[in-house]
């Protein structure tokens, strides 16, 4: 079965084995594409890698702290040090850009 999701619906994507799980507020969808294939199709201004296993939608980032990113729905994801700075900068730029 094929799904068509709007960017706004996607909270984050999770790498699971060779496949990706797309998390929305309502459901999880298993994709037959891997995370790298999906990443190539996403608008990088709207999405940022948290670490090797997650890609988050910046629109749903509430805050970024020392080791966590908190999403607007209360989900917490671990953030590795190298991505924390990048994610914070992208999130600030995204908010300031008014997209």
Short descriptors:
single chain, 99 residues, alpha+beta, 5-stranded antiparallel sheet, 3-stranded antiparallel sheet
Please describe the topology of this protein:
Elements: E1 10-16, E2 19-24, E3 28-31, H1 35-41, E4 47-51, E5 54-57, E6 61-64, E7 68-71, E8 76-78, H2 81-97
Antiparallel strand pairs: 1-2, 1-5, 2-3, 4-5, 6-7, 7-8
Question: What does this molecule look like?
Answer:
- By secondary structure, the protein is of the alpha+beta class.
- The chain is built from 2 helices and 8 strands, in the order E-E-E-H-E-E-E-E-E-H.
- The strands form 2 sheets. It has a 5-stranded antiparallel β-sheet. A 3-stranded antiparallel β-sheet has the order 6-7-8, covered by helices on one side.
- Strand 2 and strand 3 (28-31) form a beta hairpin.
- The chain is globular and about 35 Å long.
- The termini are far apart.
Unreliable sequence segments: none
Radius of gyration: 13 Å
State the distance separating the first and last CA atoms: 31 Å
Number of strands: 8
Order of helices and strands: EEEHEEEEEH
Strand content: 35-45%
Which range best describes the helical content: under 10%, 10-25%, 25-40%, 40-55%, 55-70% or over 70%?
10-25%
Strand order of the largest sheet: 3-2-1-5-4
Could you describe the largest sheet, including whether it forms a barrel?
5 strands, antiparallel
- Shape verdict: globular
Q: Average pLDDT across residues?
A: 85
What structural class do the secondary elements suggest?
A: alpha+beta
């Amino acid at each position: 079965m094929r799904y068509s999701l709007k960017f706004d619906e996607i909270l984050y994507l999770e790498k699971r084995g060779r496949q990706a799980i797309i998390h929305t507020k309502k459901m999880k969808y298993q994709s037959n594409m891997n995370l790298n294939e999906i990443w190539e199709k996403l608008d990088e201004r709207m999405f940022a890698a948290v670490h090797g296993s997650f890609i988050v939608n910046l629109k749903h980032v509430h805050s970024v702290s020392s080791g966590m990113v908190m999403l607007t729905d209360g989900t917490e994801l671990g953030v590795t040090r190298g991505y924390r700075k990048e994610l914070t900068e992208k999130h600030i730029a995204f908010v300031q850009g008014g997209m």
